[in-house]
Amino acid sequence: MTRVFKAEPYDLGFDPASTALVIIDMQRDFLEPGGFGSMLGNDVSLLRSSIAPCKAVLDAARKAKMLVIHTREGHAPDMNDCPPSKKARGGLKVGIGDAGPMGRVLIRGEKGHDIIPELYPAPNEPVIDKPGKGAFFATDLELMLRNRGIKTLIVCGVTTEVCVNTTVREANDRGFECLVVSDAVGSYFPEFNRIALEMIKAQGGIFGWVAPSAAVIAAVG
Ligand code: TIU
């Protein structure tokens, strides 16, 4: 069954059976005070506007029985999967692996690493733990998508110019069609948010498509 997203730079046809919702890194470490995002010097409240649209798209995808995949950026407790360059970057007083108010920063199993309660994964929804910014690097995501015949990705999450953009670029090179939900992504830098969305849809959709949550929900529902 083919349906259409009203999107930019032009409408995108999709089949719900071969479409997955991918929610990138909606973790306490990025969205709540005292996590990795704060440690980097950011105002984390800037990301919170993405939560309600993301939840609305999540509810629609669940209702339509689409595949929903959540990702989390972070590292194993022994940090064997954390490049020393990533740990050292920024010269932070409290950085990756150090004790913060929500446990060890960006470490799996710690409170800060987990997904915010508003968007918590259902038991049947895969959670991809990724050591990098892109969700395809050093994960089973591609295998999981290919095994289920997925062709189209609806992408939400944070941050727009970092993990969302990196993942969309990785997906595009692998032949997936990505639709980024413009109000369900967020950045600590409003101008980066706007430009990151422009970059995706410029040049005839060089990396993919962009549409607001209302258009995505209308097409999925
Ligand atoms: N710093 C920043 O904007 N983002 C990240 O470090 N990770 C994600 O975007 N998930």
Tell me what the structure shows.
This protein has 221 residues and is α/β, with parallel strands linked by helices. Helices cover 32% and strands 21% of the residues. The chain contains eight helices and ten strands. The strands form three sheets. The protein has a six-stranded parallel beta sheet with strand order 7-4-3-8-9-10, sandwiched between helices. The model has no long low-confidence stretch (mean pLDDT 98). It binds tricarbonodiimidic diamide. Tricarbonodiimidic diamide binds next to α6.
Draw up the topology in text.
Blueprint: E1 3-5, E2 12-14, E3 19-24, H1 28-31, H2 36-39, H3 51-63, E4 67-73, H4 84-88, E5 99-100, E6 103-104, E7 127-130, H5 141-147, E8 152-158, H6 160-173, E9 177-186, H7 190-205, E10 209-211, H8 213-220
Parallel strand pairs: 3-4, 3-8, 4-7, 8-9, 9-10
Antiparallel strand pairs: 1-2, 5-6
Helix pairs in contact: 3-8, 6-7
